[in-house]
Amino acid sequence: MVELKNNYQMGKRRFGSVNWIGAYSLYKKETLRFLTVFGQTIIGPIGSAILFLLVISIAIGKDRINVLEVSYIEFLAPGLIAMQIIQQSFSHSSSSILMGKVMQNIVDLIGAPLSALEVTFSVILASFTRGLIISILSVIIFSFVTEISVKYYSIFFIYLFLSGFIMGAAGFIAGLWADKFDNMATVTNFIIVPLSFLSGTFYSIQSLPTFLKELSYYNPFFHMIDGFRYSFIGKMDGSIKFGIVYLLILNFVMWFISYYLYKKGYKIKS
Fold first, then answer.
1. Which of 117, 157, 163, 251 is buried deepest, with most CB atoms within 10 A?
2. Using CA atoms, how far apart are residues 260 and 258, in angstroms rounded to an integer?
């Protein structure tokens, strides 16, 4: 009887150091959450990127200029794909946490036998998975309307992972902070979207004034998009090594903040 009581003590973990089954179940649940609305979460962003590309291609017509020694369309296409990865990875984790708070079913997550480490990694990796699917499908579809192709697959997947993970962690933090969807719209409209457009998606930062060019090097979105573009065209405005190190540091910082806030129950525990 004593042994039975010890084995089934409330609050005692019986899964070892990591609850792999629980973490995978949460990851699977988060992945299925966006796959069930595939048209909205995957096809929609890809369609928006293609529309951007076609409109700009038609607008500049025959007056196309070369950027970083490639045609403007070849320069632009990878940036548009990277921008969708950034925005959609953020959108997944932020909406997951915020909807749980608004619908008051986040208590199910809090009460599950999952540590803060397992919860944050499961949700963030699901966000990365959404970005991964969008990127692969985008590359395939874009290859039919442009001449782009991946030249350096290692760089492609490194920057894809670093970008998706950072934005998944950022979305997790934003979801914890926001009390309603209006708060989340504020973050998206005044932080995510401006940083996306000021990251060199549509232009080379070499064309910027010196002050703005130097400032761009501190914008993490610039390094995400610049490195991702390098995997396609073999040219970049920044440094591949500095970009990877910078994003690795940000990955750890953003994950740790999300882990710490969730563990402390920030805005989810009364």
1. 163
2. 6
**pLDDT, tens digit, 9 for 90 and up, residues 98-114:** 999 999 889 999 989 99
The closest of 119, 213, 228, 216 to 163, measured between CA atoms, is: 228
Distance CA 149, CA 139 (A): 7
Which residues 6+ apart lie within 8 Å of 127 measured at CB?
30, 89, 90, 92, 93, 164, 165, 167, 168, 171, 172
Both tokens of 145, joined, read: 């309307």
Per residue in 221-249, pLDDT (tens digit) is 999 999 999 999 999 999 999 999 999 99
Among 32-46, 65-79, 129-143, 224-238, the least confident range: 65-79
| In contact, 148 and 232? CB cutoff 8 Å | yes
Tell me how many degrees the CA angle 134-136-140 measures, rounded to the nearest 5: 115
The domain segmentation of the chain, as residue ranges, is: 20-264
How far is the C-alpha of 211 from the C-alpha of 234, rounded, in Å? 26
d(CA 243, CA 241): 5
Tell me if residue 47 falls in helix, strand or coil.
helix
Residue found by looking up tokens 């991702």 in the block: 228
> What are residue 66's DSSP bridge partners?
71
Tell me how far apart the alpha carbons of residues 216 and 200 are, in angstroms, rounded to a whole number.
Answer: 8
pLDDT of residue 146: 86
Beta carbons of 140 and 172 less than 8 angstroms apart: no
Q: Map 127-193 to HEC letters.
A: HHHHHHHHHHHHHHHHHHHCCCCCCCHHHHHHHHHHHHHHHHHHHHHHHHHCCCHHHHHHHHHHHHH
Do 85 and 164 contact (CB within 8 A), yes or no?
yes
On the CB side of 48, how many CA atoms lie within 13 Å of its CA? 15
